[in-house]
Amino acid sequence: MLGFSQLGVPLGLARSGFLSFMVAVVLATESPSCSSDMDCANAGSAWRCCGATLKGENCPPTWSRRPRSAPSLSAAGEEGCVLPGTIGATECVCTPVPLSMCGGNPPPAVPGKKQWLMIGDSISYGCLGPATDQAAAVNIQVTHNPTNAANVWWGSHCLETWLGPDPSRWDAVSFNFGLHDLALDNERIEPANYTRELANITSRIASALPKVKLLWVTTTPVPLGIDGACNKTTGQGGCPPRRATDPTVFNSAAARAIQASGHADRVTVLDLYSTVTKRCGTNYELCPENCTASHVNGKWEGNCFQIPHNVHYLPAAWEVLATAYVNAVKALIG
Which of 238, 235, 229, 233 shows the shortest CA–CA distance to 72? Predict the structure, then answer.
């Protein structure tokens, strides 16, 4: 391992936050290779599994690192390191990520409005627009965490940033993980680790906000046929790959996590998984069957509820999911 003096960095300068991070970036050449975030659990400041040659989601911009060997991705996308939006496997290395990437402080509270913090991934983001409009009609201000909440490993590192400098402002906090955790890529968190990390997150929210209403939101379904390696050229496979059987596994793990947190009596569950399966079934490729959809001028159009071969939704479906969110929060604080 190289020291500061070997890098030509004066110790006085190295103590500054920015330069310390840049030094950590250089030292990342000495970090271990990885296949997923949990491989970096004991790597200190290099806690995120990022591409050595490609940029992954919630990873710093790509820089030159010493090439590392990593397991290759199988045809089923079951092992190795494949980053979201890439074709096939790439080399990955445990990487230092500054907590500034978690985002900044929440926007100011609007006086007289109840405060709802929404923590979640692209599913909650998809609901954010219609949920904001619906919540405003019942005097609730919605604030989403400023970045994609990604997996529980990212959430565990960013949680205090998302709660903000005055956590007592929140009347309700909804939180959701799962689709990133079950992805067959560098963000994969196996169920046992998912349970442990989610229990820790739940306990920390409950302890920091002893009077807040907590809403856990279940992981939504994965359609059949997106468990192959990502290929954006052909449109086949998942980007990243996901198995249709995993959401129920991770939802069961989440239920265990809520119980293990010691605060299960304070957590209400919004079963967004069932909101979707009531319309799509539990094993489906298209929802509804034989539906069609196309991406036109930056928007999805068609008669599908869910985007074909994708975990995201068309506009009418986002309204349905947002309504479920808002109704659950209204029942808690409305």
Answer: 229
Which residue, chain included where needed, has tokens 């409009």? 133
- DSSP bridge partners of 143: 117
Determine the Cα–Cα distance for residues 119 and 103; give it in Å rounded to an integer.
Answer: 12
Residue range 179-213, pLDDT digits in tens: 999 999 899 999 999 999 999 999 999 999 999 99
Q: Give the C-alpha separation, 149 to 175, whole Å.
A: 9
| 156/145 Cα distance (integer angstroms) | 13
Interior/surface letters 169-200, b for 16+ CB within 10 angstroms, e for the rest? bbbbbbbbbbbbbbbbbbbbbebebbbbbbbb
Instruction: State the Cα–Cα distance between residues 160 and 148, nearest whole angstrom.
Output: 15
> Mind giving me the DSSP string for 104-136?
-PPPPPPTTSEEEEEE-SHHHHHHHHHHHHHHH
More confident residue, 234 or 216: 216
Please give the C-alpha separations between residue 96 and each of 152, 173, 277, in angstroms, as whole numbers: 17, 29, 39
Compute the distance between CA of residue 273 and CA of residue 271 in angstroms, rounded to an integer: 5
User: Rounded to an integer, what distance in angstroms lies between the CA atom of residue 88 and that of residue 68?
Assistant: 16
Task: Read off the amino acid at residue 225.
Answer: G
In terms of DSSP H, where are the helices of the chain?
A: 11-14, 17-27, 122-136, 152-163, 191-208, 246-260, 272-280, 315-333
**Per-residue pLDDT reduced to its tens digit, 242-274:** 999 999 999 999 999 999 999 999 999 999 999
Judge contact between 116 and 174, C-beta under 8 A.
Answer: yes
Tokens encoding 188: 């994969």
Token output for 330: 């209204």
What DSSP letter does each residue of 17-30 carry, written as one string?
A: HHHHHHHHHHHGGG
Tokens standing for 65? 């690192």
